[in-house]
């Protein structure tokens, strides 16, 4: 079945989306609604309308959203949920971006100019590096900046304005670097040190050498060619290492150890939450912990009998006083 309708849920799109859904439900078509996380409250209205629709057996509804906590849990359980996690390496992220862009790109000027295709692949690699550097906090970035698809689309739009200059070798790389820094990626950064890191990456990736047929990023072992075929770029990206070591990000090898320690701490924290149960306040957690250790306290009281902590401390001090003054000790 063809995907029918792709309404983007923003203000004023709710009624249009319902009209498309009603028609698709009757005809047995598929509908994909993206950016659903922007209007989580609309799910209640959508669920109510779906119950009233006349639906064909072939009708399917896909709701695409980012991770959010705004949805009604009672309604969410009625849907089949599919979780997609982005791959965690420069290689995989760049390949996914290349595949998506190759399918969507229809501009004939870009498709017949190897330089224009190459500069977009360079941008995919740049975004992948910025995203994967988040695995090394605080060595890589001081914060987990949400570099994502919107930043990439903004940068691609900027490149499109400058395509004619790129083709004629009249591209001012300094202008491109500053535009992408201030309009695309740099807007998320609020730390001067992180901003300098971003500027260094822009200088390293966005330059004349990047469009040469011998450009080899990172450690220089994989050459990214200048080609008019998306498949050539895909083959080159496939040769990148499957695991990103710290030196790729120009970080110390000890960064891996620090990252693993932080990961271990987060796992321990999750285990504590899993064991004691998540709660809305520290007070509730303390009550649960008290309930868990109460049997141990009761057992201790039985074993101690009539002894008290105060009495035990007094006896302890008597023993210390007695044997710390040997001239009072009895033979």
TrEMBL record:
Pfam families: AAA_lid_11 (PF18198), Dynein_heavy (PF03028). GO terms for molecular function: dynein intermediate chain binding; dynein light intermediate chain binding; minus-end-directed microtubule motor activity. InterPro entries: AAA_lid_11, AAA_lid_11_sf, DHC, Dynein_heavy_D6_P-loop, P-loop_NTPase. Residues 9-82 form the Dynein heavy chain region D6 P-loop domain. One of its GO terms (cellular component) is dynein complex. It comes from the Eukaryota. Residues 119-252 form the Dynein heavy chain AAA lid domain. GO terms for biological process: microtubule-based movement. This is Uncharacterized protein.
């Amino acid at each position: 079945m063809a995907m029918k309708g792709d309404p983007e849920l923003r203000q004023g799109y709710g009624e249009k989306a319902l009209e498309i859904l009603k028609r698709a439900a009757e005809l047995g078509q598929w509908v994909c609604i993206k950016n659903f996380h922007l209007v989580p409250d609309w799910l209640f209205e959508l669920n109510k309308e779906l119950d009233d629709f006349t639906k064909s057996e072939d009708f399917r509804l896909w709701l695409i959203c980012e991770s959010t906590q705004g949805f009604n849990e009672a309604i969410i359980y009625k849907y089949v949920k599919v979780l997609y996690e982005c791959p965690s390496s420069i290689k995989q992220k760049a390949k996914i971006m290349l595949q998506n862009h190759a399918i969507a790109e229809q501009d004939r000027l870009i498709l017949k100019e190897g330089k224009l295709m190459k500069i977009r692949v360079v941008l995919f690699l740049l975004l992948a590096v910025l995203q994967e550097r988040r695995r090394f906090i605080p060595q890589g970035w001081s914060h987990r900046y949400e570099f994502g698809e919107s930043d990439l689309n903004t940068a691609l739009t900027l490149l499109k304005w400058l395509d004619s200059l790129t083709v004629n070798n009249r591209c001012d790389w300094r202008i491109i670097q500053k535009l992408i820094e201030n309009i695309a990626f740099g807007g998320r950064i609020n730390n001067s040190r992180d901003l300098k890191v971003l500027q260094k990456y822009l200088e390293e990736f966005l330059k004349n050498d990047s469009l040469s047929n011998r450009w080899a990023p990172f450690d220089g072992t994989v050459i990214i060619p200048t080609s008019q075929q998306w498949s050539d770029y895909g083959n080159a990206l496939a040769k990148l290492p499957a695991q990103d070591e710290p030196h790729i990000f120009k970080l110390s090898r000890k960064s891996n150890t620090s990252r693993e320690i932080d990961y271990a701490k987060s796992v321990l924290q999750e285990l504590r939450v899993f064991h004691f149960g998540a709660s809305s306040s520290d007070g509730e957690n303390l009550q649960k912990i008290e309930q868990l250790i109460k049997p141990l306290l009761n057992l201790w009281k039985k074993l101690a009998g009539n002894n008290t902590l105060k009495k035990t401390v007094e006896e302890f001090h008597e023993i210390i006083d007695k044997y710390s003054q040997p001239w009072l000790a009895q033979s």
